[in-house]
Write a structure and sequence with these properties.
216 residues, Rossmann fold, 2 domains, alpha/beta, DNA_Rep/Repair_Clamp_Loader, globular
């Protein structure tokens, strides 16, 4: 299994993120060897994940963060980053990776005081991982001051920092922020895809999986 396996019914989004993760890996490898960066990279420093409840926008962002931190030997041999088993993937998925910071709303808004340390950290080099990653789970709840703090950081990012913003729709995010992000819109997963995941991942009987998928 890989970090992409649980992105149910999001084949187009998964393909886009996998391609970006491969190019991100090439960028880090080139920098480590004092080589010029690859041309026409699909990697960018800011991403906006949108989609309705249940689409898995936070899950997609977390999977991408794990792929960016992947240190699997297979990756170095040309495999797609995001093995799901190495220390980089495992800790990023669990939320314990030192270079993956998450911000979520506590109450109705994300206040500027809750963003200050995170924004400050975004300007630092990765401590152990390959990228410094900032995941904002409720970007639609940034208030004016906290949104302005994020905007400044997204406008002038550090070379190895990636911002991952999640919101229900693109209209929920400040226009000046979303204009600087690559947008990925996730769809509601089809019933068949949800049922297949329940069978494949959790060992649920096909009939029960189909019924559960329809009910949800």
């Amino acid at each position: 299994m890989s970090v992409w396996d649980d992105l149910v019914g999001q084949e187009k989004v998964s393909a886009t993120l996998e391609a970006a993760a491969r190019d991100a890996d090439a960028l880090v490898t080139a920098a480590a060897g004092d080589q010029p960066p690859p041309e026409a990279s699909k990697m960018t420093h800011a991403w906006l994940f949108t989609g309705p409840p249940g689409a898995g926008r936070n899950q997609a962002a977390r999977a991408f963060a794990a792929a960016l931190q992947c240190v699997s030997p297979d990756r170095a041999l040309g495999g797609t980053p995001g093995c799901g088993f190495c220390d980089g993937c495992h800790t990023a998925l669990l939320g314990t990776h030192a270079d993956v910071s998450s911000v979520a709303a506590v109450g109705a808004e994300i206040l500027v005081k809750d963003m200050r340390d995170t924004v400050r950290k975004s300007y630092t080099s990765p401590a152990n991982g390959r990228w410094q990653i900032i995941l904002v789970e409720d970007a639609e709840r940034l208030n004016e001051k906290s949104a302005n703090a994020v905007l400044k950081a997204v406008e002038e990012p550090a070379p190895r920092t990636v911002w991952l913003l999640c919101a229900p729709s693109i209209e929920d995010v400040l226009p000046t922020i979303r204009s600087r992000c690559r947008h990925l819109n996730l769809r509601t997963p089809p019933v068949a895809a949800v049922a297949d995941m329940l069978v494949r991942r959790d060992g649920v009987e096909p009939e029960v999986a189909a019924a559960a998928a329809r009910a949800t």
